Amino acid sequence: MIPPAAPRPTQLGPLLARRRLARGWSQQRAAAELCAAAGVPTLSRHEVSRWERQRRVPGGFWLGWLAVVLDVPLVALAEAAAATRRAGSARATGPGRAAPHGVRPAGRTGPGRTGGTTRGGGARIMTTG
To answer: Rounded to whole angstroms, how far apart are CA atoms 63 and 10?
Structure first.
């Protein structure tokens, strides 16, 4: 007897699209809501489209804000992102991709972050005297 196949994990793109459409939002509106919540004016509807088509997988910063804006548990989004990465759907690099472990962009705050004070990834130089 062959055991039944394990259920396929939910991938991130379809999950994001379903949650966005359930709210009646366009990709433009979703991007605007994310920008307003995160205080980052540079996210476009094109990036939302890339996430939904699984051309890119958002990193931890955007996953946190997606959880807030779309009212989805962060753990569900993180699991879906991991399933998407395992499936090899994410081909690209860029702003939606997670930073190396322990590295956070400077000057951005998000859920569970205390925030930095530099902008644009610059380093703070401390001087004395």
So the answer is: 15
Q: Whole-prediction pTM value? A: 0.65
SS3 of the chain: the string is CCCCCCCCCCCHHHHHHHHHHHCCCCHHHHHHHHHHHHCCCCCCHHHHHHHHCCCCCCCHHHHHHHHHHHCCCHHHHHHHHHHHHHCCCCCCCCCCCCCCCCCCCCCCCCCCCCCCCCCCCCCCCCCCC
Structure tokens at 94: 């860029």
**pLDDT tens digits, one per residue of 40-65:** 999 999 999 999 999 999 999 999 99
